Every structure is written in C-alpha cells, then in structure tokens.
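Dock copper (II) ion; give full complex structure.
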Amino acid sequence: MNRALFTAALLLAAAPAAAQPADWSRAQQVTVTLSNFAYAPETIRLRRGQPYRLHFVNAADGGHNFVAREFFAAATVAAEDRARVDEGVIELGGGASGDVRLRIDAPGRYEVHCSHFMHTTFGMSGEILVE
Ligand SMILES: [Cu+2]
C-alpha cells in the first residue's frame, strides 16, 4: 500500500461514528405512550450510536406534547422525520401517533416534559438516559 492510500485508510478508520450515515432499516422501535398525565416509560433508555424509531402514541382524548430540546439538539433525526420535531417539541393531538427515527451519540440524561398548561405539575415529565 502506498503512503497516500495508507493515510486515507487511517483517516477513514478514525472517522467518528457521527460522520457515518445512519442505517434506518436497522432502527429499533421504542414506543412512548403519552396519557393524562404521564409518559410510559417514564425513563427512556437508549444506547448511543444505535438507530431508533421512536413511536409516539397519545392515548388520551386531549393533546399532549413531548418537549426534549436538548435531546433533539444532540440527536441526528432522519431527514424525512425532521418536520415532526419543531424546535425540540413533538406535538400530538388526542389519539394521534407518529414516528421519529433518530440516533444519538452523546451519552447523558435528558429531561422531557409536557408544556401544555399545568401538565408538568400534574406529573407529566420524564427523562431519556443515553448510555
Ligand atoms: Cu400533556
């Protein structure tokens, strides 16, 4: 192998995972149910680097949302699903559902809450743990 090729191979090997396009066909589904006034699960556990399909279901008659600005800012959301996430917020009318495919490479704890009037006070909050 000549020196230039060898250097190129080294650079490719050292490229961070974030530079690789995600393979959404390998996305693991995680269902998140919204209700009056809770998220299930309350703690969403994700592994960094793994593609996921977050399947949101609003089981209530009224609207709820999933506010996770830091989480979505740190995640890579599939291009086709970006319109569902408005500045880190997923809004779901009563009975609505929707999918967001994403991958996150930054481990940490991210807070989630519902910003509808008084819903957080009623207990509608949770967290996402990325390990
Ligand atoms: Cu709510």
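Observed: Helices lie at 3-14, 69-74.
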